[in-house]
Specification:
Layout (H helix, E strand, L loop, with lengths): L1 H30 L10 H25 L5 H26 L12 H7 L10 H4 L17 H8 L14 H4 L13 E2 L9 H7 L14 H5 L3 H4 L4 H17 L8 E3 L9 H14 L3 E6 L2 E6 L46 E9 L10 E2 L3 E3 L2 E8 L7 E8 L10 E10 L9 E10 L4 E9 H4 L12 E10 L9 H5 L11 H11 L2 H8 L13 H14 L7 H6 L13 H16 L7 H6 L1 E9 L5 E8 L2 E4 L6 H8 L3 E3 L5 E2 L5 E2 L1 E9 L3 E7 L1 E4 L4 E4 L9 E3 L2 H4 L13 E4 L4 E2 L2 E2 L4 H8 L3 E4 L11 E4 L6 E6 L3 H4 L10 H22 L4 E7 L1 H7 L15 E6 L4 H12 L7 E7 L5 E6 L2 H4 L3 H8 L6 E7 L1 E2 L5 E2 L8 E10 L4 E11 L8 H8 L7 E8 L5 E4 L16 E6 L3 H6 L5 H10 E8 L8 E6 L4 H12 L7 E4 L1 E2 L4 E2 ...
Parallel strand pairs: 16-21, 31-35, 38-42, 43-50
Antiparallel strand pairs: 1-12, 2-4, 3-4, 5-13, 6-8, 7-8, 8-9, 9-12, 10-11, 10-13, 14-15, 14-20, 17-20, 18-19, 21-30, 22-23, 24-25, 25-30, 26-27, 28-29, 31-32, 33-34, 33-35, 36-37, 38-39, 40-41, 40-42, 43-44, 45-50, 46-47, 48-49, 51-52
Helix pairs in contact: 6-12
Protein name: ubiquitinyl hydrolase 1
Family: Belongs to the SKA3 family. Belongs to the peptidase C19 family.
Main location: nucleus
């Protein structure tokens, strides 16, 4: 039976080893830079699609779990707990399988790999390349259809701080799969719906020229490679490999008009599987090879520059005598061989093409192409399916005309519209718009269900007249923006703001205010001093932010500003009301501007006035009240546009019936109530009410209805319908929309028409992709919509859009911010050079004396508080010792360094001294061989021996028999533990032989009776055991770095007199000791008092101590609420009576332990309160304006009638009628 288990265990261990290698390889491929997978088989794409679909399902499930039930932070904590549990289970499994031969793969330190592979050649002599699991023949990744180049790219150590690959990833990120497009399912490549015959394929393929048969590489091409790619092979190795490849290619017969060869054809090069892979990768990167799929096999051909240039010249069709021209180009650009990357970025290059199709009903081909037209230097054509692409709709697409001859990895981005012109009424023209990133996999894109064929061919509809149809295509070619390399400042002149969490609303507001130059200048002129701190001064924080937005080259952080608001980290992840934030900010600035040269700026810019009026209908009485406003809240629900919202804002309300107005001496009267504007401000801020309270769900919900706003807003329309009689009619209230497109950190130029359309909201209607099954159109909601509009009055624009330069900025602010920039640059430089250095932390006896008994009690030292050195990796360790001599004044010959080691019980102790051979090595090499955890730091203990005169002497020779021990002294009377020293003992000696020396170190009498304890570990529980004084150190398993605690032998009296009479009990107390900060639940931000408790205290122990501290006689009237470590707020639910067994249970929040509890003093005992239901009732008295809140407690089985009866005892009703 044991043999069977052993055989099974070995088989399982082998399986786990292989599984871990595969998982590690997949993890590395995910972590590193993605690559185009056009050469991969459909199997891999299908695998990706399944993964995406599965992930989407998981995310949807998580979203449904979190919606309205738990906070994001709690969900995050739960996920972290699951992760920790999985890690623990894996570690346990590894331990169990270790005896069967399972060896877990060690983690590879990326810094080590990056720094140690400078000489990697195609021979692959170094460990990292040779052991790369991605290139193993046994690995299943190859079976997924990945080419050698794909595997080599994934396996290469791509440093993200160096040059990025010029290979785009649309094929990976946007595969042709219906599920991938989500709700935009109608935008499909035409070829996905075709049953293409072999002949059709031949018609569509473009011929390619015959490339040369010799690959020529230059040293310049090699030197221009990113540094991480040059680590794959030296120039000499690459040159030798290319010569071998040329020799093989010259022997291989070239067929099919091109020098195609399969990756397996290079087996005779004797480079090995990995060598071939890296060779192909480098040649592809240097544009000497193109990867393609031929006959289902991944193949390569030599690059030929001649076939990469599109043919120039404009193809024009016949010119009819009437109607739209067959090819009408508006603002056409001359065709060049430029690519997307070198297109101008100032404005998109736009052209409109009109295609006249005669004899439309007699078209017999399944698909029909237009003439070629050019936009942005690229060739395009329109593709239609006159009878539908396997559906009863006209199918129409925009196609890249020369896609077959473009270079590998090509991509281009275009916004375009396709239309079928209505020849009776232009307004009835059928037009649809979309956008797409075209690539080799998706070279055509458009609408499978453009319009029903029944409508198209109906002569009475006007789309086909005299058997002629006109098709229009408007194409705008835009540069593809790479988020990681995009330079907002370079491309637009502006920079963005970093999002702290949920601060996009704040970023929008700040960018809007910044782009009001008059406001920015006023902020700069606000008085601040060099002693102010931005985190405590809103004016200085805003000045700093605006300065950086104006002069920085990269995106700007808002942390200083949010700190000046009084927000903590969690507040940044909470959605705040943008109108409230705007008002608070303006009020703060307005207050700070008082008494300065910019006093009144806020009012001058943003303040307007309106008049609230109530006018009686039947008597001559009118009541008016003038009010000011800084912004206006406009209704979105039920309103089509801004004008409709203003109409609703000034809508007259009739007060009649039970709602009559009490008009002083006239009594109750029918009246009209409304609002009219006295004046509008120069800068009009409109807050759109996109959120409303949902009573059923008890939460705020967003209104995504379509809501339009014009570029020009005329508030004098219809003879000033919004203005009061008192308004100054000489002021022209014509406003222009003020806005830019900011996506937090990224700023892009955007077509105004498109930008407005995107922000209107509403729904977009899409036909089904298979209309024959269901003719119901599919609608999806556009969730991106505007919530704040800023308009500037035309007559004030010259004043508001003024020049702001450095002379408007206080000198101390310029100096401060330039210094910050220099410090930031120093940090960046420090970080960029970090891989060249090693941090060495040196602990000494002085550190142990300083820390033990004060900051720490267990182990020996906190390495974060010892002296650290930043040393170049190539520096010999002996030279480092000279640096130590300068720092500590200890000559080199008197220094001996010990390496720290982390033991299996999670303690950290000096393990062994460095050997002379190790000290002769470089610092970087020493760190690598001594640090199995691949930590970037090297931690050492400096042993210094002192002579009788307290001067350094040479350390004694250490033999295998010598053991270095550290000693701590415990005083039960003072409850004090301190470090007293260290010395060597012989492993064969006994503790009883060192008692006299210990007494001398402690200052005791030489014959004092003392007890010795070995401090073994402290996690998860304390283990400190008595040391047998008559047993040898070897038999007690004492070794280098062990800690011995000793004290006077306790007497019976001392055991009763002292709380913790022996060292183990004191260490147990310290381990479980917990200082708890108590706060009143009514004042959750203010600390009230602290208590020293034990994590093992029961619920009753804790409430007893709190009640005693507060002077409450009945501890059951104390109710505690735990702390949320993520939000830094009380949790929503208090701790039920005796629901927590121990104090630790009250403090733990997922994987974090808090030291805060909130308390309440109840008027009734908590067990009794838990049987009752507490309700908050808002009572509206018809004779008073204020609302009174009443708290009512009733048994949980009570009815609404019971609530009303209880309410009657608390309030006085005007009549017998009561409504709830």
């Amino acid at each position: 039976m044991d043999d069977s288990i052993r055989v099974f265990g070995k088989a399982l261990a082998s399986f786990c080893n292989d599984l871990q290698r595969s998982c590690d390889a997949l993890k590395q491929s995910v972590d590193r830079r993605p690559i185009p997978l056009d050469s991969a088989s459909s199997t891999f794409v299908q695998c990706l699609n399944r993964r995406v679909s599965s992930t989407s399902s998981d995310l949807n499930m998580l979203e449904s779990m979190s919606f309205g039930t738990v906070s994001f932070e709690e969900l995050l904590g739960y996920c972290n707990e699951v992760y920790k549990k999985n890690q623990s289970d894996l570690a346990e499994l590894e331990d169990r399988l270790g005896s069967f031969g399972y060896v877990p793969e060690p983690d590879i330190d990326e810094e080590d790999v990056a720094s140690d592979n400078s000489n990697v050649g195609l021979g692959f002599e170094l460990k990292m390349v040779d052991a790369d699991p991605l290139l193993e023949d046994s690995l299943s990744l190859k079976d997924l259809g990945l080419s050698d180049v794909c595997l080599a790219t994934i396996a290469s150590e791509a440093n993200k701080n160096v040059d990025s690959l010029d290979i785009s990833v649309p094929e990976l990120m946007n595969p042709c799969n219906e599920n991938q497009h989500g709700m935009k399912g109608q935008y499909r490549p035409a070829t996905k719906f075709l049953d293409v015959t072999a002949g059709e394929v031949e018609d569509d393929l473009k011929s390619v020229g015959v490339p040369q048969s010799v690959i020529n590489i230059s040293k310049d091409d090699y030197e221009n490679l990113p540094s991480y790619m040059k680590t794959l092979a030296s120039w000499e190795d690459l040159l030798a490999a290319v010569e071998k490849m040329n020799s093989i290619m010259s022997q291989k017969k070239i067929t099919n008009g091109g020098s195609f060869f399969h990756q397996d054809d290079l087996a005779s090069m004797d480079l090995g599987h990995k060598g071939r892979s890296y060779l192909l990768l480098l040649l592809l990167r240097m544009n000497h090879l193109v990867v393609e799929t031929v006959d289902g096999l991944i193949s390569y051909r030599q690059e030929d520059e001649e076939i990469l240039v599109p043919h120039s010249g404009l193809v024009e069709g016949p010119q009819p005598l009437y109607g739209p021209q067959p090819m009408e180009i508006v603002a056409a650009q001359p065709e060049t061989a430029s690519t997307v990357e070198n297109q101008p970025v100032d404005e998109p290059q736009t052209s409109r093409f009109t295609w006249t199709i005669e004899n439309f009903s007699r078209l017999n081909t399944k698909k029909h192409y237009s003439e070629v037209f050019v936009v942005g230097g690229f060739k395009w054509r329109v593709l239609i399916f006159p009878k539908g692409n396997n559906c009863d709709y006209l199918s129409m697409y925009l196609d890249v005309a020369d896609s077959a001859t473009l270079p590998y990895g090509w991509t281009r981005y275009a916004q375009f519209s396709l239309a079928v012109v209505n020849q009776f009424h232009g307004k009835l023209t059928m037009r649809k718009e979309t956008q797409h990133q075209f690539n080799a996999r998706e070279s055509d894109w458009g609408f499978t269900s453009f319009m029903p064929l029944s409508e198209l061919y109906d002569p009475s509809r006007g789309y086909v007249v005299n058997d002629t149809c006109f098709v229009e295509a408007e194409v705008a070619v835009r540069r593809i923006i790479d988020y990681w390399t995009y330079d907002s400042k370079k491309e637009t002149g502006y920079v963005g703001l970093k999002n702290q969490g949920a601060t996009c609303y704040m970023n929008s507001l700040l960018q809007t205010l910044y782009h009001i130059p008059y406001f920015r200048k006023a902020v700069y002129h606000m008085p601040t001093t060099e002693n102010d701190m931005p985190s405590g001064s809103i004016p200085l924080a805003l000045q700093s932010l605006f300065y950086k937005l104006q002069y920085n080259d990269t995106s700007v952080a808002t942390k200083e500003l949010t700190k000046s608001f009084g927000w903590d980290t969690y507040d940044s992840f909470m959605q705040h009301d943008v109108q409230e934030l705007n008002r608070v900010l303006c009020e703060k600035l307005e207050d700070k501007m008082k008494g300065t040269v910019v006093e009144g700026t806020i009012q001058q810019l943003f303040e307007g006035h309106h008049m609230n009026y109530i006018e009686c209908i039947n008597v001559d009485f009118k009541s008016t009240r003038k009010e000011s406003f800084y912004d206006l809240q406009l209704d979105v629900k039920g309103c089509q546009d801004v004008y409709a919202s203003f109409d609703k804002y000034v809508e007259v309300e009739r007060l009649e019936g039970d709602n009559k107005y009490h008009a002083e001496e006239h009594g109750l009267q029918d009246a009209k109530k409304g609002v009219l504007f006295i004046d509008f401000p120069p800068v009009l801020q409109l807050q759109l009410k996109r959120f409303e309270y949902d009573f059923m769900r008890d939460t705020m919900v967003k209104i995504n209805d379509r809501y339009e706003f014009p570029l020009e807003l005329d508030l004098d329309r219809e003879d000033g319908k919004y203005l009061s009689p008192e308004a100054d009619k000489s002021v022209r209230n014509l406003y222009t929309l003020h806005g830019f497109k900011f996506d937090d950190e990224r700023v892009t130029k955007e077509d105004m028409k498109r930008a407005l359309e995107e922000q209107y909201g509403g729904e977009e209607e899409l036909p089904q992709t298979n209309p024959g099954f269901n003719n119901t159109p599919f609608k999806f909601t556009k969730y991106s919509n505007a919530y704040m509009l800023v308009y500037i009055r035309e007559s004030d624009k010259e004043k508001i859009i003024c020049d702001v330069d450095e002379k408007d900025i206080a000198e101390h602010l310029r100096i401060r911010l330039k210094k910050e920039q220099e410090e930031k640059e120093d940090k960046r430089r420090y970080k960029a050079q970090a891989h060249l250095y090693t941090i060495i932390k040196v602990a000494r006896d002085e550190d142990l004396v300083e820390q033990i008994g004060k900051d720490i009690y267990f182990d020996l030292v906190d390495h974060e508080r010892v002296r650290s050195f930043r040393i170049q990796k190539q520096m010999p360790f002996n030279l480092f010792k000279e640096e130590v001599a300068k720092e500590f004044g200890i000559p080199v010959q008197f220094q001996r360094f010990w390496i720290w080691a982390k033991r299996q019980n999670h303690t950290y102790r000096p393990n062994r001294p460095l050997t002379p051979q190790e000290e002769a090595q470089s610092v970087g090499h020493l760190r690598e061989v001594s640090n199995k955890a691949n930590n970037a730091e090297l931690k050492l203990f400096l042993e210094i021996e002192l002579g009788l005169d307290r001067t350094p002497i040479s350390p004694p020779d250490k033999t295998k028999e010598d053991i270095l021990l550290f000693f701590k002294l415990y005083d039960p009377e003072k409850e004090e533990l301190r470090y007293v020293g260290r010395f060597f003992v012989k492993s064969s000696s006994k503790p009883i032989e060192i008692l006299t020396k210990l007494n001398q170190m402690a200052g005791f009498a030489p014959d004092e009776e003392i007890e010795l304890y070995e401090e073994i570990k402290f996690e998860p529980s304390v283990m400190c055991e008595r040391l047998d004084k008559r047993a040898s150190f070897r038999s007690s398993q004492i070794e280098d770095g062990d800690i011995v605690c000793f004290q006077k032998s306790p007497s019976q009296e001392s055991e009763q007199q002292f709380r913790y009479p022996v060292a183990p009990s004191f260490l147990e107390y310290v381990h479980n000791r917990q200082i708890v900060h108590f706060r009143s639940l009514e004042r959750p931000k203010e600390e009230d008092f602290c208590l020293e408790l034990s994590k093992l205290h029961t619920y009753d122990d804790v409430v007893d101590r709190v009640a005693h501290r507060l002077g409450v006689n009945d501890p059951s009237k104390i109710r505690l609420t735990p702390h949320n470590c993520y939000s830094q707020q009380p949790k929503p639910h208090p701790i039920k009576y005796r629901a927590a067994d121990r104090l630790l249970d009250m403090l733990v929040h997922y994987n974090q332990t808090s030291d805060i509890l909130y308390y309440e003093v109840l008027d009734i005992p908590l067990p009794e309160l838990q049987c009752l239901k507490t309700l908050k009732v808002a009572f509206h008295n018809v004779t008073k304006d204020e609302v009174v809140i009443h708290n009512i407690r009733l048994p949980r089985q009570s009815t609404v009638g019971n609530v009303l009866d209880e309410l009657k005892t608390k309030v006085e009703f005007v009549s017998s009628r009561c409504r709830t």
